[in-house]
Amino acid sequence: MGNITKSGEVISESVRLCRQDNGWSQLELADRAGLDRKTVNRIENGRFQPSVETLLAVSEALGVSVTKLLGKKK
Question: For residue range 62-71, what is the model confidence (pLDDT) as tens digits?
């Protein structure tokens, strides 16, 4: 269970930082990814572990790889 929490923390921080790097609000990211703003908020606050489909939508909207959102260098 510790790995799930740790990966969730990495994803939440990565999504938030990438969104902020783009100068976007949570609503703007949500619109671009086809999600609800509450979902983006829950991802960023570590209260929601996104599905692969959601993670792909977020990474595409942000213009980054899924591996970057997972905290990997490559």
Answer: 999 999 999 8
In CATH terms, 2-69 corresponds, of 2.40.30.20, 3.30.1050.10, 3.40.50.1360, 1.10.260.40, to 1.10.260.40
How many angstroms separate the CA atoms of 52 and 23, rounded? 25
pTM, entire model:
0.86
- Of the candidates 21, 24, 30, the residue with the CA atom closest to the CA atom of residue 64: 21
Place of tokens 């595409």: 60
Encode pLDDT of 37-54 as tens digits.
Answer: 999 999 999 998 899 999
Residue 7: which of 50, 42, 39 has the closest Cα? 50
Neighbours of 67 (CB within 10 A): 11
- Sketch the domain layout of the chain as residue ranges: 2-69
